[in-house]
C-alpha cells in the first residue's frame, strides 16, 4: 500500500481544518444574525405578534413608524439567508409590506392589515394576516 508523503498529509489536514473552521465561523455568524433579526423584529411588533393584545386603532400609522427598524433588520439579515432561499425571503418581505398583490413601486401599503372588505369577497382577518406575514419572515431565522 503506497504511503502519502508527509508534506501532502500536512497540507490536506490543514485544508480540512481550515474548511472546518470556516464552516463553524459561518454557522455561528448566522446564528448570531438570526438572533439579532428575531429580537429586532419581535421588538418592533410587540403587542401585535404573536397574540394581537395591543392592536392600535390606526395600524397603518403604527407600522409606518416601525418600518425603518424592520427594514434595517431585514437588510442586515439578508446576507445570512442561504442563496437558494433569498428569493423566498425577499418575497416574504414584499408580502409583509405590500400584500400578495402589491406593486413594487409602492414602498409601504398596509391595507391588508386594515380589515377592508369588498362585497362578494370573503372577510379576511387582518390580525391573522399580520401574524402569518410576520411568521413568514421569522421562519427564515428559525433555530439554527
Bin the helical content.
Answer: 55-70%
Q: What is the typical, i.e. mean, pLDDT?
A: 90
Main sheet: strands, sense, barrel? none
The count of DSSP E runs of length 2 or more, i.e. the number of strands, is 0
What is the H-and-E element order? HHHH
Distance between the termini: 43 Å
Strand content: under 5%
**What's the assembly state of these chains?**
single chain
Shape designation: elongated
Radius of gyration, in Å, reads 22 Å
Poorly predicted spans: none
Structural class: mainly alpha
Number of domains: 1
Number of helices: 4
List the topology elements.
Elements: H1 6-44, H2 59-77, H3 86-98, H4 126-138
Helix pairs in contact: 1-2, 3-4
Question: Your description of this structure?
Answer:
The structure is a single chain. The protein has one domain. Helices cover 58% and strands 0% of the residues. It has helices spanning 6-44, 59-77, 86-98, 126-138.
Task: Give a short summary of the structure.
The chain is mainly alpha-helical. The protein has helices at 6-44, 59-77, 86-98, 126-138.
Considering the chains and any ligands shown, give keywords for the structure:
single chain; 144 residues; mainly alpha; 4 helices; 58% helix; transmembrane; transmembrane helix; membrane
Amino acid at each position: 500500500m503506497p504511503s502519502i508523503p508527509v508534506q501532502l498529509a500536512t497540507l490536506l489536514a490543514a485544508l480540512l481544518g481550515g474548511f472546518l473552521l470556516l464552516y463553524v465561523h459561518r454557522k455561528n455568524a448566522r446564528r448570531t444574525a438570526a438572533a439579532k433579526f428575531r429580537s429586532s423584529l419581535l421588538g418592533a411588533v410587540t403587542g401585535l405578534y404573536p397574540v394581537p393584545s395591543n392592536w392600535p386603532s390606526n395600524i397603518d400609522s403604527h407600522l409606518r413608524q416601525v418600518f425603518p427598524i424592520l427594514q434595517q433588520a431585514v437588510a442586515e439579515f439578508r446576507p445570512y439567508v442561504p442563496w437558494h432561499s433569498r428569493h423566498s425571503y425577499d418575497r416574504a418581505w414584499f408580502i409583509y409590506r405590500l400584500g400578495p398583490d402589491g406593486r413594487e413601486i409602492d414602498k409601504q401599503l398596509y391595507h391588508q392589515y386594515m380589515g377592508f372588505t369588498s362585497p362578494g369577497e370573503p372577510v379576511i382577518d387582518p390580525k391573522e394576516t399580520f401574524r402569518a406575514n410576520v411568521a413568514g419572515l421569522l421562519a427564515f431565522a428559525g433555530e439554527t
